[in-house]
Amino acid sequence: MDFRVLPSGDLTLTNLTTPACLIGETGDLQTISISLRGGRIAAPAPDLPQLDMAGAMVFPTFIDMHTHLDKGHIWPRAPNPDGTFDGALSTVEADRAANWSGPDVRARMDFALRCAYAHGTSAIRTHLDSIALQGRISFPEFTRLRDEWAGRIELQAACLTLIDRIDPEGGGEFADLADLVAESRGVLGCVTFPDTRLRDRLRAFFAHAGKRGLDADFHVDETGDPEAASLRVIAETVLETGFDAPVTVGHCCSLAVQPDAEWLHTLDLVARAGIHVVSLPLCNLYLQDRQAGRTPRWRGITLVHEMAARGINVSFASDNTRDPFYAYGDLDMLEVMREATRIAHLDHSRANWPNAFLTNPARACGFAAPGFAPGAPADLVICRARNWSELFARPQSDRIVLRAGRQIDRDLPDYTELDHLMR
User: From what superkingdom does this record's organism come (predicted)?
Assistant: First the structure.
């Protein structure tokens, strides 16, 4: 149950606490009041009833810019056999071939969206596996869900295929996939890794995206191999081709194990190219540097502090949920914020890291910027916690979520709903 039931109708919530960066101020936390009128945030209004919130922390609803709704919640039927990246790849490939029909994908995506909505997320970008014919199954299901969820969660989809499936000459199956993405109003994506023709394949990728007016979103160097440096090649290719649509890269794990000269040069190129970066700390912590009988030596995440220092737009997101790539998770961005703060040492750092869960992903994906400005939708997440220590010490499972000024039912869907898909 939520920690407080708010009265219905227009009112002013006083004595709220919020990060200063979310209201254009400097410093750490600020005390604010928020007036709600007609489902939107209003200018201060002395005529409205006032409710003292006793210092409760408030955020706009969250943006989760890197997820895998199509993979989500298959763990009971497809567990990772050893917790490794290779184990995840082979297990998902087998499950996809055996089970990913339209009804299966749709049911699991809808289940995940109901979880995200209850936790306080209002915009999501998902990657959809699109190897062979899977894109023709998953994209139509996604577009129907996008329409059904309009007004609750704004949805985007990026195709997910492998860089070595792109014909450097520009034709073949990737051209057909790019057409499908364009028809679906999606984002062009792929996984990059060392390849003898990487630069040529990237030129073809950007040519396909440019021809169809598509944004780009890559899975990049998701490995602890310091020789994996496709991020540098992506940045060089963006600068070489002049590709001017938004480009996002996720993971970029290998940067953390490269020599200083290598990552310094790469990040300078990424900053020059204006590339957006999304870090996925939960999944990367789970998979990277996992070896049987050996304690992991590093956290798996990318160089977020060094990126932010160069003005690179850095975000954090959920990534996988209860599938072979990450056995846990529930598309809860407060959990992502809590764990990212611990894993990446965001505390005792710059005060604007909350933007990495809100305005930064909005900028990367083109979602409406969340905030408290008058006229904005009254979409809020309010936690009983009054400061960072209280916020991160507990999961805030009794938070209040307002959508259009109304307190929503936060009951989560029961896992038994998916039992018929797990047999």
Answer: Bacteria
